From TrEMBL:
It holds the Pfam family MoeA_N. It is an enzyme of class 2 (transferase). Keywords: Magnesium, Metal-binding, Molybdenum, Molybdenum cofactor biosynthesis, Transferase. The keyword Magnesium applies. Residues 178-313 form the MoaB/Mog domain. Catalyzes the insertion of molybdate into adenylated molybdopterin with the concomitant release of AMP. Pathway: Cofactor biosynthesis; molybdopterin biosynthesis. This is Molybdopterin molybdenumtransferase. PANTHER family: GEPHYRIN, MOLYBDOPTERIN BIOSYNTHESIS PROTEIN. GO terms for cellular component: cytosol. The keyword Magnesium applies.
Length: 394
């Protein structure tokens, strides 16, 4: 008989509910990259703060065309012309420089000829008032709402915050993630011992978190021994404890008993998910515990669906879940059973092809995949060209 399996979306909601809010810190912009805004970012200045030239040329009054113009000075970026330009006059002007008083458009230098202090039109000239000028406030004005609370700070978002007058931003403090692999069969990568298996999951999961605001504590390999595992868990000081392996029902699957013995509690166990069914979540002291299955592909998929989103949610993200993208099937696919399926697949030219063998121990197909093909519980069989959803993973 099937045990009751929690739907994926419900498990994600329950997992986020296990987390307590993190305190915030105010950091220099460079340190805020890839973190989530703890407060909305509003403009502290107007951009541009005056009318600026968008081209190199001559600042003129459109009504004075076709000229000629008497050259009376220069306006460069950071060095505005201090006077006023009168009838039939012009100043040299460069990209990013303030428009002198009395001018309203820029004659690009390719359309002008200079002879001593006289500028003559040699091409078409600016077609209208405002040509080649960036008006004050083109991008935004003081007080405009620029970035909402809970948004991830992209490189462009950081540049926007800087040009809006900010040098620092408040973000959630960096959280600590302790990662433990469990299993007597495991040995560090490079092992040639017969009967030993190179440990993959700790390494893989740490690499999956590299773009997130976390400090990683590597707890290494914990053997399948209840007192040892209990002691290792009891000593953890972290915001999140991630384990892999020992999550299922075998006699050597000790993560749940060790967690209880260390004083922790399980909130849920077993998800209607493939791969990744035996995943569990709970708490241990101040930490949220995420017990991922040992099969490497199951660990990868559950880390993608639960661990990364948990870190995002704890760090203040409004939308912590990975965003699915639409694609079309490149080949027929069977009907699904009661578990939500995440098939290793390749997206090529908008068409998605799932690997034929989906055993959750096989890393070769995972390493080749660039997306997961999402199949809802009881999804009907699909034909070439049918609309599906994918999660990019590379
Ligand atoms: N009777 C049942 N047996 C199993 C069930 C079940 O429902 N009933 N579920 C199966 C599913 S689905 C999965 S997934 C696995 C996961 O079990 P565990 O989390 O207990 O994982 P282990 O048994 O410890 O390991 C599974 C597999 O993965 C290898 N492994 C584990 N950790 C690592 C690591 N860090 N690096 C590399 N490889 C690792 C391990 O050697 C095993 O081969 O349970 C099924 N069984
Ligand atoms: O859920 Mo297990 O992860 O199917 O292999």
């Amino acid at each position: 008989m099937h045990p009751t399996l929690l739907p994926v979306a419900e498990a994600q909601t329950r997992l986020f509910a296990l987390a307590r809010p993190l305190s915030t810190e105010t950091v220099p912009l460079a340190g805020a990259a890839g973190r989530w805004t703890a407060e909305a970012v509003d403009a502290n200045r107007t951009q541009p703060d005056s009318d600026l030239s968008a081209m190199d040329g001559y600042a003129i009054r459109h009504a004075d065309l076709p000229g000629p113009f008497a050259l009376i000075g220069e306006s460069a970026a950071g060095h505005a012309f201090s006077g006023t330009v009168g009838l039939g006059q012009t100043t040299r002007i460069f990209t990013g420089a303030a428009m002198p008083g009395g001018t309203d458009c820029v004659l690009v230098q390719e359309d002008a000829e200079r002879q001593d202090l006289t500028i003559r039109l040699s091409g078409e000239g600016p077609p209208r008032v405002g040509s080649n000028v960036r008006p004050r406030g083109l991008d935004f004005s003081t007080g405009d709402a620029l970035i909402e609370k809970g948004q991830r700070l992209t490189p462009a978002g950081l540049a926007l915050a800087a040009i809006a007058g900010h040098a620092t931003l408040p973000v959630a403090r960096r959280l600590t993630v302790a990662i433990a692999a469990t299993g007597d069969e495991l040995a560090p990568p490079g092992t040639q011992d017969p009967g030993k298996l190179p440990e993959t999951n700790g390494l893989m999961i740490a690499a999956m978190l590299r773009d997130l605001p976390v400090e990683i504590v590597d707890l290494g390999i914990i053997p399948d021994d209840l007192p040892t595992m209990t002691a290792a868990f009891a000593a953890v000081r972290a915001d999140i404890l991630v384990t892999t392996g020992g999550a299922s029902v075998g006699d050597h699957d000790l993560v749940r008993p060790a967690l209880s013995a260390a004083g922790g509690s399980i909130d849920f166990w077993r998800i209607a998910l493939r791969p990744g069914k035996p995943m569990m979540a709970g708490r241990l002291g101040d930490a949220v515990v995420l017990g991922l299955p040992g099969n490497p592909v199951s660990a990868f998929v559950t880390a993608h669906l639960f661990l990364r989103p948990l870190i995002a949610a704890m760090s203040g993200a409004t939308d912590p879940l990975p965003r699915p993208f639409p694609a079309r099937l490149g080949e027929p696919i069977r009907a699904n059973d009661h578990r939500q399926d995440y098939l290793r697949a390749e997206l090529r030219d908008g068409l998605v092809f799932a690997s034929t063998v989906q055993d959750s121990s096989m890393l070769r197909t995972l390493a080749r995949a660039n997306c997961l093909l999402v199949r809802d519980p009881h999804a009907a069989a699909g034909q070439i060209g049918d609309a599906v959803e994918i999660l990019p993973i590379a």
